[in-house]
Amino acid sequence: MPNAPISPLPLSRSANDNEIAQISRKRTSFFETGKPTPICRLDLDKFNQAIAPDFASGFEESEDCFTQITTKAALLLGAEKCFIFIKDINEKQVYTFLKDAVGNKVQATKSIDRGITGSILTEPSGFNESNIGQRKQWSYGLDELPNFVTTCYLAWPIWDFVACKSIGVVEFRNKLNGSPEFSAADSQIARIIALQLGHAIIHYKQQKLIAGRTEAINQAFDENFDQGETIELSSSAEDVSGTQSLIASGNKCPRRPYNLSNKPSPFVVRRTSVGVGDKAWDYDVFLKSEEELLMHAIDIFDEQGLFSRFSISITTFVNFINEIRRGYDSNAPYHNIYHAFDVMHVCYLLLTKCGADEYLESLHVLSILVAALAHDLGHDGYNNSFHQNTCSDLALTYNGISTLENYSASYLFRILRKQECNIFARLNNEEMTKMRTRLIDMILDTDAKNHFMLMKRFKHCLEMKKLSRGLLSSMILHISDVSNPVRPGTVSRKWAYAVQAEFFRQGDKEKELNMTRSPFMDRNFENLPRLQLAFIDAVVQPVFGLFADFLPLVERHCIRPLQLNRAFWQNMLHRNCTKVEDVVSFLSIHKTEDSIVGPHDDINRDKDSVTSDDAVKAAPIPGIPADATQGTSPDFRKMSVISLNLETEKVIDPEIGIKFDVNKSSTSLVYNSSRGACHKLHSRMKGLLESPAFQALTYFCTIHALFAFDLNLALGNKNADIVMDYATLIAFLVFVVELLLSLACIPGYIQFFFWLDSIATISIFFEIGFVMQSESSLLIASQLNLAKAGRAAKAGARVGRFAGILRLTRLVRMFKFAKLTLGRAMNKTKQEEELHGDELEKDLHSSMSIIGRKMTESITKKVIIVVVLMLIMFSATEVDYTPDARQIQLDSVAEFPGSSVLLDSLFESHDNIIAFSAVGYDFVDQERLDNLRDVEVLAITSTFDDSVSARFDISDDTASQAWYSLFKTTFVSLLLATMGLLFSRDAYKMVIRPIEKMKNTVQQLSENPWLHLEKTMYRGSNESNETDVLEQAITKMGSLLQIGFGSAGAEIIGKNLSDLGELNPMIPGVRVNAIFGFCQIRNFTLAIEELQQDAVIFVNKIAEIMHSNVVKSGGDPNKNFGDAFFLVWRLKSGKNTHSSGDLQKELFDSSLTCMQKVIKELLQAGSLASFLKDDTSNMSSARASSFETSNVAVGVGLHKGWAIEGAIGSKVKIDASYLSPHVNLASQIESATIKYNVSLLMSEAFFGGLSGSIQSTCRRCDRVSFEGSTDLMVIYHQDIEPLSTLQAPPQNHSTLLKITQWDEETNVNYRGLIKNAQSKLQSNSELAQRDVFDLLFNSYVDKDWKICKILCHLWIENFPGDVIVNGLAERLSLQDFQCPEMWPGFHSFKEK
């Protein structure tokens, strides 16, 4: 119960000190109306520093901390001194920490009654004064510092937002720049600092209070909460991985773990009592009468199945509600009966719409709704602080500790003590003890002082991944109690008006009693927007944000309207609409009304109405900016702080004076762990190596290394060589980086391809022209370049050819990459056209098998070696036997130096001579020589005389050889790739791929034994081969294992397939929690005698119906006993739960509706003849006619418990099944269906797991004890049709009416009971009719069989076809409706 909204500052002033009031009028007060306040310019950097989250973080009561904070604060304001004073626990002194004259750390104190510091504690705003020494509050002996003269003084009170009282003071003395006073901007910065200190001090005290309790909390989980009271939570990462594992297991798997949250059972049809309009978040209790609210409560309790589950009489419940209504003060504007019903409604919405009921059992749901109705019982409209300050009788009774909450809890149990109001009358002792504890804890947790402690406990539990259901219940009630701001605007504002009216009511009372006005309770300083903003920011936003971490749907249903409401109140504050009349006037101007429905409400409205989201887009809510929901940015928070902490919107307005840079703050992640840094570096290197951009870069560099030089020789000139050299250098560096990254990131890289890559990379270095300085080096380089360009193209340059041939191996990686990409594309196409989503095909190329990888690498290596050796051999054996004419003619000139004829013949035969040198004759075409590359010039020297030489222009030959080299390189590349792909393709298609598919089948089957196996397509005897046969055999064997072992054998299959050791079917058992179903065919022996050999058809047809429905509902068939079937729905536990809640109520609902559907389908089949009409064509007419009189029927027993799942038998023969007394109980419950003449019965444990809406359709059948079980249980039956349909009378109907008829004396003594029961039974309300049945059954259990007899007669008259009451009447009539004295109160079953 929020006693007061949390405010950053109080707005009351002292009513006792007139002198202080006069002085305060002269202060810098920003909420004075009628006086213009000068606009101050706030230093944005200082503002950012003051509002920074770490300004006062790590606060503790120590000299070091105080010094650190005061130093920062003094620097922000440019003050000489800054002090922080905190009020002590007795509230008589304030204290601070500082150093004395000798430097010792001491704690200094000051009295509150004297001096300026104490007076600041009672102020509503800051104190900014020059010439402070002239003020009467100033005490030179107490306030002045030694050897210091205070001239100007600025102080702000520090507030405790929960208790709504000041807890300290922050003060500043003297400006460093010599200014005689602090500015208005300084005052605002000081105010923000005080606000920050308030949060820090409150947080420190909370931490101090909870310090050392972590171990106690953990111990409480272990000692005080049993497994059923603890919710095992899972991290989001685990949920994601769990979901991904389900997807990976195959979408076609009919027996995969059932994801109830994503795919609810199609059989679950929930019964609802609450109207569609009453399920909305905009449900307005102010528009409802008290009778309508009573019916709303009845509908909620009925929908949750609480009347049925706890046998609550409607009359008793109405009496209880009436007493609750009388317990609320009708004069209280807020804490009245409407608030109680509204909190109950929000609790209901959190349970149903946000999914909280999936984690809570019926007992917790009942406790939450009852606590919601009673949490403010007896509240007189004045908060706890008021009662404590006035020493009221309640405060004295409860010692001022959660006064009103303790009184409400006490008031509730005084109501429950009345027999006619005791809705808990049917609870057993254990349930009642738990209920009383929960109600008291929940109501006390609504105290505003417990708000932060409750949040701390809840957050701690979320971090520990273990949450108590009791704590969850308290949290639901508490956030419902403070949920007004999360409601749609119209409803939220009505509650805001009511809160303020109650505050003013208390403020008037405080004024009457001459007390200090509490914050926001002085009607002379009305500021409704700031009250709401403070409450939202300090309480509602944090607690709902925390709760949304547990239930994500809270974000959708609550957070967005909260942001809209906050934006509305902030806008009202900026518009200076501080009073209720101003807000109402503003809304009246806008014709869109004050009745906007919440933007998140997912209730299906009228078809003609638009959705709320569309409505928001089409017509903005009046007073709310269009971007109001963008409330998570730093700017939004800064504006929020400004708007909350300024007295008027004119002092600092973000819209007119301050602009914030949202990108100003950045977050950097610092990795302190060297291991983490290395891992991150390795991941980045691997990501770079595998990135498409880097792969493309290496691809183009490879193309450059193979073809660029030859293209340059064929098409380029000498000027392009320098560009080519730099491009070659870049390619060389890229290959070096690739080589280093591969060494670092690829395990086992130092093998065959590493050496090929290394040689090829090193060879590129010698192709860089400017690296080779000497002429010979250049010649060698050119030889190598030419050899590489042609790939064994230059005759006489065998070393160059060999290097170039090795460089071709770089193509292998590119073709391997192309092969992988092409293979994936082809596989995807094949899946779409042929396999239609085969799960096994998806991972074949992304995760190659060991044998596939080895065979592919082996084939590739061999192809490379063969091609390279072939080229080397051809290059080494290549000999040019044609003599060079140029050499012969040059030798002739040298041999006959004086012959001009030979010389002329040389020049005439070779017009490409560009230089000639001989004795007495030199010729050089220098211009032509300068334009030629070194490789384009051929120098020949005579073998007879070295002085005779000539140079020839061979550029045309070089270009021809370059084109030839390009052709040869391309041919070799294609040859290498084609041979590799062809050889690999055949091996992959015929051997590797089938082996990989078989390997993946076994591997995935071991990981998920319920993987759906896609059968291999049979291609006919002419095309199938040995691998196809093996593949089909493995698939069939896997499917047979799944069918034969069932769900209980999943562990056996997975364990033995994943283990390479010997076969070991006898693995240890595992304890599991599950729903057990036992279904038996009725009259099976007679059916077998009639059907003979066709009995198998009969049983299998029933099994087909049974098993298909069970699998669809998330269960698994386990054993078939011929005439009976054992069924299991495994309950997931802890982090493995994929249901919407850990109780998995949807699985309980699904299992029940599944069995009801099976019963209905078999019932609709009629006789055996119609059931087997398609399978009896070959039967004799005599046998077929006998089937007309035999009907198909089954009996079903459902129970929830534990069992040991495992292999039962020996290594010779095993059965995968379950061992537990609970399995036997399911069988005995099914046997009881014959005695009670019903098709289905369920145990109390199973009934407790159902959702409330399904529970409301069930009735108690009997209270029994089964053989082998020491616990008593109530067995239940579900009415799948309304009670009004039970009109078919049995053959002994008249007998039943006769044996239940009462005499005249009974008619007189029980006239009121009879009349009341008749009116309920004859009404159209099934709830009222069920109320009569509950009274009937309770009288049977309570041994009041006389009343039971009366009610049985009335019930049989109205519902003659109800076999439950008919059977009960028959059994009791055997005792003449006289309960034996030794009757134990239950029926004992000795038979199985």
Task: Tag the structure with descriptive keywords.
single chain; 1392 residues; alpha+beta; 6-stranded antiparallel sheet; 6-stranded mixed sheet; 21 strands; 53% helix; 10% strand; flat
Commentary on this structure:
It is a single chain. The chain has 53 helices and 21 strands. The chain has 1392 residues and is of the alpha+beta class. A hairpin with a 4-residue loop joins β16 and β17 (1214-1219).
Beta-strand portion reads 5-15%
Mean pLDDT metric: 74
User: Helix segment count?
Assistant: 53
Structural class: alpha+beta
Task: Flag low-confidence runs.
Answer: 1-39, 211-227, 235-271, 592-673, 773-803, 828-847, 1015-1021, 1134-1140
Radius of gyration: 45 Å
Termini gap: 54 Å
Strand order of the largest sheet: 3-2-1-6-5-4
Q: Shape, please?
A: flat
Helix content: 40-55%
Give a short account of the largest sheet. 6 strands, antiparallel
Total beta strand runs = 21
Protein topology:
Elements: H1 18-25, H2 44-51, H3 63-77, E1 79-87, E2 93-99, E3 105-111, H4 115-120, E4 127-130, H5 140-143, E5 152-160, E6 165-175, H6 184-210, H7 214-224, E7 230-232, H8 236-248, H9 290-303, H10 306-310, H11 314-327, H12 337-352, H13 362-374, H14 384-389, H15 393-397, H16 403-416, H17 429-444, H18 451-464, E8 466-468, H19 469-481, H20 489-512, H21 528-550, H22 553-574, H23 580-589, H24 612-618, H25 634-645, H26 674-690, H27 692-715, H28 721-745, H29 752-765, H30 775-790, H31 798-807, H32 811-835, H33 850-876, H34 885-895, H35 900-909, E9 913-918, E10 921-924, H36 926-930, E11 937-941, E12 949-953, H37 955-1007, H38 1026-1045, H39 1050-1058, E13 1070-1081, H40 1084-1091, H41 1095-1112, E14 1116-1120, E15 1124-1131, H42 1145-1165, H43 1168-1171, H44 1181-1186, E16 1194-1209, E17 1214-1219, H45 1221-1236, E18 1240-1242, H46 1244-1249, H47 1252-1255, E19 1258-1266, E20 1273-1278, H48 1293-1299, H49 1304-1309, H50 1311-1321, H51 1326-1341, H52 1345-1358, H53 1363-1373, E21 1387-1389
Parallel strand pairs: 16-18, 19-21
Antiparallel strand pairs: 1-2, 1-6, 2-3, 4-5, 5-6, 7-8, 9-10, 9-12, 11-12, 13-15, 13-16, 14-15, 16-17, 19-20
